[in-house]
Amino acid sequence: MTILTRIKQINFKKISWRAILGNIKGFLGVIWRMMAFFVLLFIFLFKKFNLWFGKLPKIRNVWHFFQEKTGGFFKPFSKRLTVVVDKIDYSFGRRKTRRTFLINLAFSNLMLKKSRTLMTVLGMSIGVGAIVFLLSLGYGIERLVIKQVATLEEMKIIDVSAGDNTSLRLNRHVYEKIKEFREVQEVIPIVSVVGKLTYNKATMDVVVYAVPKKYFDFSHSKLIKGEFFASGAGVEQSRILPPDLRGKVAGVEFQAEEGEYLKKIAPEKVSFNILPGERAKVFAECNVSAKMLGYTVRSEGGYQGEWIYGSSFYPNKQERVIIDKKRNIYLGRWLRGYFPLYQVGLDGDLKQDMGDGERQSWVEGCIPEREVEVNVPLRLGGVLGEATEAGTFTSDSASGSSTLFETVTVASSAGGLEVVTLQATSSAKLQQNIVEFKAPVSGQVVVSSGLLNLLGIPWEKIEGTEFTLSFVLVKNLMPEIEGRATTTEVAYKVIGVIDDENSSYLYIPFADLYNQSITGFSQMKVVLAKKEDLEKVRKEVETMGFKTSSVVDTVSQIENLFANIRIVLSLLGFVALAVASLGMFNTLTVSLLERTREIGGMKVMGVVAEEVEDLFLAEAMIMGLAGGVGGLIIGSLAGKLVSLIFSLIAFAKQGIFMDLTYTPPFFIIFIICLSFIVGVITGVYPAVRAKRISALNALRYE
After folding, report:
1. Which of 296, 277, 306 is nearest to 340 (CA)?
2. Residue ranges making up the domain that contains 413
3. β-strands 202-211, 505-509 pairing
4. What is the pLDDT of residues 150-185, one digit of tens each?
5. Which end of the chain is more exposed for a tag (fewer CB within 10 A), N or C?
6. Residue 140: inside a domain
7. End-to-end CA distance of the chain
């Protein structure tokens, strides 16, 4: 029988809607009673606290003086409290006993047994204090860890990189596009390269970061000596130099590739194949907006086709920068040929497209360059060569010699900093393109203390320390080169030392590299105006095909870890609270048995059963709230004591103080409400039992 059939069988006419509405009204009435009691009880305890505070011997005069001087504020406040109390009281009915009177009576009853009440409240305070201490310890340690990981400013920074996609380029075009985002405050480009450092006739590889000066305004770097360099402007101020001052690479001309839309790149046909394990999209025309005919896959014999200039692949994967100056558009390289066609089935797998017959369809179409591997003659600077594998290039000159270039891996670390490593080649005939620096460089460098340790230079004596640097440039920075190129050596002088013993790296001004014909970046830091816009901007950047990371990811992992820890700590604290609640339940039950005859007398004098119930509930609520306030005080003091002990140990060893506990404002409100609810739950049974006692039986009770 379906749920719909079951619903149809229900006879809605027999349902007593009046009874249902009555139950809902009764439930809402109970909720209102509890809320009204909470407000009245809170105001009552506030007035009692004010009265007790004014009776303290050493503080009394100061307190009275303060009240007199601020009487213009406290008197209207007291009048407003009185108006609120009257309205809540009269909401229960003008002929009934006022709830403020019942609360005062309940407080007086508790004061008749001061020792028992004090012990009960103390037990409740210890249970609540255990929760406060454990959770505030969890919040405090989480806060300390997050402060070590990130500052508030770093929570507004997104690190953008190409990731593992070596065909995607970070360049000025991408820089300008991201900077146009309304939420973006600043975009900081970074160029990461491997540098060969020579000092005292010794040479070592080191990671070099070319950054603008404003990079240090948003980084976590701390100088232990010297200063940051004053030069090193960003992309707007840096400028690619005129042709006569540009760096030159032997055998390679630096110029943007030009083409004409839908024209052949070369007259010869080429052999190519689909990348292993990939399914390539086949378009009717060499344009990403054209109709997609289907898919094709790698063939054992490969395919034949011709190079065509088509639409750009951006923002997906752009292999190189190609411009059609007539139409003022970017172009991409496509291969046009005949391909066997496949379609995606319902299970997600490829199925042969049989067309109208029994044989698989073959169609003429276009495939983007990024989805194929090509074995095709290429010509660079007059040297004929052949591309054989991704990342390497071999060439045959008239003398029959060959050149093999090493590949470079560029990736981002977990902390968002660019990491550069070189992959060694097995060729014994390795040669390199040499970039000659004809433009002047700043000659300023900021190094890590870890690098100074490797060089054997004390950071206190960096004045006048100089060394020479050459840089390894790769294709993602210079699309015109294949493999890698090395610059000529330039002299640098150490002007600052960063406190980082664990890593070896150095910073140079951004313009030193960007002005030497470099058109790409390794990474960009995107600084937002508001932290709340981080996820939105990340999605927009990732839609462009780039990889994003942020310290927010690490902070989220830390928060999730400590959230689980707080759950465990809460369970431990609630065990102590449950034990304390049993003690309060026992106190209220004993109080009920001792005052049975008193209850009978109250009912004979005209006190209704509901008011007797409220009287016992008021006693439970008072003890619950008092236990909550006491628990906050005990838990906070215990946390501060533990923090003091650890701070003394830390100060003796490292000279620092630390606060291991933190109590968020919402947590204080939660504890107050929790203690009130526990008081209500604990007092329900004694209150209901007192309500149901017959007046005659109560008077006869011995």
Report:
1. 296
2. 191-247+402-512
3. parallel
4. 666 778 888 888 876 656 778 888 888 888 888 888
5. C
6. yes
7. 60
